Amino acid sequence: MPDNQPQRSNVLTRWKPGQSGNPGGRPKRKPITEAYRKLIENENLTIRALKQREEDSIVDALAKSMVIRSFVDVKAVAEVTDRVEGRATPDESDDPNRARLTIVFDIPRPKQVAE
How far is Cα 60 from Cα 82, in angstroms, rounded to an integer? Predict the structure, then answer.
């Protein structure tokens, strides 16, 4: 180790052991999701309003094009709804009105041949 650099044990650090340098974590900002939400929550939205303008940000332009595409493409609908409403997960609650199906396979084992 060169003489002009202090040893690691003598260096003071900003944080104490176990303390995070970023306690709040990464910001939870989701610009495309927010743009989708802004578009689809507008009850007076028209096709004309979805026309892209020069002053639109890239995020707004992407969101508008995806919403327009969702009129004819099921995958685009899934993309927009997954981002805005969250991905659908199977409901595994113990709802008594929920139908359940149990399948039992009773397959005989093959007979072993004696050698």
Answer: 18
